[in-house]
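**User:**
My hope is that you can spare some time for a protein that puzzles me. This is the protein in question:
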Amino acid sequence: MNKHKLQYVRAFIFLLLMYLSQAATAVTVTENDTAIQPDLFSRYLVDSGAQASLDEIRRRSADFIAVDNRRQLNFGYTHDAYWLRLEIQSQLLQPKLWILEFEYAYLDDVSLYVVRPDNIKEMHAGRYVPVSQWPVPARNAAFPLMLNPGEDIVLYMRVVTQAGMALNTRLLSADQYALDNNQTVIIMALYFGMLIALGSYNFLLFLALRQKTFLLYSAFVFTFGFAASGMNGIGPLMLWPDMALTGFADRIVPAGFSVATALAMMFARSFLQMQTLAPRWHRFLSMAIPLWWFGAALTLFSNVQHALQIMSVMGIMTTVTLLATGIAALRCKVPAAGIFVIAWTLLLIGTALLSVRNAGLIPSNFFTVYGMQLGSAAEMLLLSFALAARFNDLKRQKEKAQQALLDTLMQQEKILEQRVSERTSELEKAKMQLQRQATEDALTGLNNRNGLRQYFSQLKKHTPQDEVIALMLIDLDDFKPINDRYGHGAGDEFLQEISRRLQDIVQENDAIGRMGGDEFVVICRAVSDEQLVHDYASRILSAVSAPFCLSNGETVAVGACIGICMRYLHSETLSTLLRCADEAMYQVKRSGKQGILLDHDQDFPDASAPAQ
């Protein structure tokens, strides 16, 4: 009798453990829940050949693999079908509508099977399914689930796609889904509205100025935006709801982005105008552009998955190539090259996030899914600013030509002496103002690069040959977050405060300048002792690092890296001193933020060391 009781106890414990293990793998929905991420409760199965039916998949329940982290649901490019199995336990007090949404929009065919004890409900969505047949018309595949109090259901999801397989999902209450969807619509409207505005504005500038650069930029923006609408689900939902059935829509994304990369290469060649300053890079771009167009043509004839892979490779190659070109242009002092470099850096980051996520190496989240949109929005805005600078340059050239013509007419007409005298006085004032603008930084009033160059030239002309000078290059740390969080107005206010602090601490005979962005320069005259220079830099570092209260009431602070180059004046140029200080400053950055490194002439004793 005791033996039978022991068997019953063991059976009861076994059943209890089975129940607890099953409960631990199920999503529990309660009245207080509004948004659930069910990925870690899901199990997946690979259907090689994509031929298995639901009945076959259900018989293979033991073959499903548990999901340990969200990254595990990114499978990259594949020809197989993937199945997800998810159990849901309802602890609701009354029936309630929920929405199961896939986070990634670019999925071809998504089928959902809702398995209840007495029936199985089947729903379909995705790019290969007509929008009229989607259970929820939205950017992403979404399915309604009516959950009843106390019921348990099992979901089977089958997904097939030619793009990167990303199966992250969200389970949302109907109200929360509507709220999130409205927010997404607003974001997308702002994004595509910005693209349309930028493209249209620059096209109108092309019509007015007949400058090819504006036309290329406008074509790049429109092409990129059209392809992006297909990638994020707006296009299949609103622009071509049934075109995917013909197969042509499969080419919109890879061909659109590939054509956009070719247009970007042409725009860069036209915008940077490197024929004179960097002819080798200009020839490189000229040779690369036909290859880019060839790659775009390949996306029209390759199979869809290969076309998408070609698109991803071209996107990364384009951004890296143009970033390298922009850096070369920046070194050659091509106008607006700095803005160009920043713009393509942001797009490189966004494109890399999307491409790596498509390869299944990083998980899906807001920044990886929308990385390309975020990066491209910032990139296109910055390029538009650069084009605005180009427009202003053209305007200045026109005004200069008009002024030259006016001066010629004035000379030919022999205006009265009094008016000539008055005009001469006005020109002198304008000349002084222009000279001041040419040598002063507009934001801080400090010397700009040209002002430092003039100061150095005069210093070299009127200073004994054996005088030793020290050039400090000061690069602020963590300045960009101030701009990002409080706006550029706050950033400008903070830079003006830094300039005031430098003016307060720098000695009267020394020179201060701003190189642009968050870099400052101090030229120290008549120095001989490295330790004194180091102490001088330490005081500057302390002043720069002190907290500052912005006009909006927020208190901010930054660190700084200071690279110092100490040399005999007669043997150096300003460029060599800047380069030497820049290398020292970057050594500080590589060793960690906030520090000083002094690079002295070999004739001096080695008395300096990095200080953190």
Summary: The radius of gyration is 32 Å. Residues 472 and 564 are 4 Å apart (CA to CA). The longest strand covers residues 81-90. DSSP finds 17 helices and 20 strands in the chain.
